[in-house]
What we know:
This protein is α/β, with parallel strands linked by helices. It contains 15 helices and 13 strands. The chain is 38% helix and 13% strand. The strands form three sheets. It has an eight-stranded parallel β-barrel, surrounded by five helices. Strands 6-8-9 form a three-stranded mixed sheet, covered by helices on one side. Helix 3 (64-74) packs parallel to helix 5, helix 7 runs parallel beside helix 9 (191-215) and helix 8 (171-179) packs antiparallel against helix 9. Mean pLDDT is 93; it is low at 317-326, 334-340 and 491-495. Its EC number is 3.2.1.-.
Amino acid sequence: MYHQQLDDFPENFLWGAASAAYQIEGAYQEDGKGISIWDTYAHTPGNTYQGTTGDVAIDHYHHLEEDVALMAKMGLKAYRFSVAWSRIIPDGEGTVNEAGLDFYRRLIHELRKNKIEPVLTLYHWDLPQALQDKYAGWESRQTIVAFKKYCEVLFKAFKDDVKYWVTFNEQNVFTSMGYRWGTHPPKLKNIKKMYEANHIINLANAEAINLFHELVPKGLIGPSFGYGPVYPLTGDPQDVLASVNADDFNNNWWLDVYCRGEYPYFMLKQLQKAKIAPNITEADRKLLKSAKPDFLGINYYHGGTVQTNRLEKQAETANQKDFSATDPYLMQPEADQAQSPEIPMFNSVSSPYLAKTEWGWEIDPIGFRIALRQVYEKYRLPIFVTENGLGAMDKLEDGQIHDSYRIKYLQEHLLAMKEAITDGVEMIGYCAWSFTDLLSWLNGYRKRYGFVYIDRDDNGERTQQRIPKDSFKWYQKIIAENGKQITPKSQKINL
């Protein structure tokens, strides 16, 4: 759909940036904090790039005021952060650590003081290790009880100060990486356990949403999902069918539960045939139906291209080589055959039309518009973009970082979002990933996403100096003018 003129961004649009506790806070054993599964995982040799950990990260715990001052200087309207569960309840279910609550009180106070809307994520992958040890984490329904208690503590503590809340961040990613590919904690390769754990997390999400609506009636809550549209490699109807299958597998399996309270019928039937479907009780179905999110958080980096499943048609060229096992946003159902039954649905392939980042992720701003359109049309919930950004090996040159490639990437994606708004998508805001450089989970500190450069690397903490990049100044101007300068003919902005 072509528009001669684009609609303006909404007057109250929340221009923001995002982060996650384990990736920035550090202070992993300070002020009563307990150990999380990521503390344990990163401390295990061979699990992360050069043994990098979040023990210190970018030391946001001790740079809180400085970091928020930079956010205020940029003009941020919103800041999405996550709370470390083990900082609030060290063992996950017992005594509340008041020092942990005080840290987030300070953060929220600083944000409010600078007219920045706090967006609080309840769970961004860092389960308390004690719950993993005691209950096998998300494999047990007892963890739902613990999560509900943790949520209640935060809802009561911050209900008057935080309007926007996110339940789970990228459930599709942390379940597949943790229970299928074995590259995140708890480092399993068992697809049946993945689907069972995923179901338990769905129940925890529903419990949290219902409790929130009871305790925080003036707030808004929703999950944050790593979404990507799916393209058929060709116009061959078999490839088109594969894309329908992949959309069910990669997206609908989670979003239908979040937004409709039920699992997609065709996908569930295949899992039941393979005897790997989760155990879903009548009480579970009732609970899932009862929980209604107020908005949907979307994390967008890229979509995916698929062709007919490899049992019916083998990939023929190097360009069509399956690459999904190394990409958290593309999941391939035919992998790990020693661990799980065969479910021939689709084969993920590389797109011949898209450039890639230096990390191998496809760059697809049009896919962003498609994603926003697809999700809004299907579920009719306001959308809050909770992540979108470019990871790169930024270089510090004469005390400056000239990241024109990041500006180009973000500008193209903001244009796609503005086009989606003009199409009719209801948007709350946009949080770029990320505000500062941070620990990139398995990739250490070399993969940088931030508007603010942090002087540290994989070998140590260095000075931890904060240095705004060129993209900082660019986004500052975007926010000041509410994105009016984002047009189809927009040129590079003078900094």
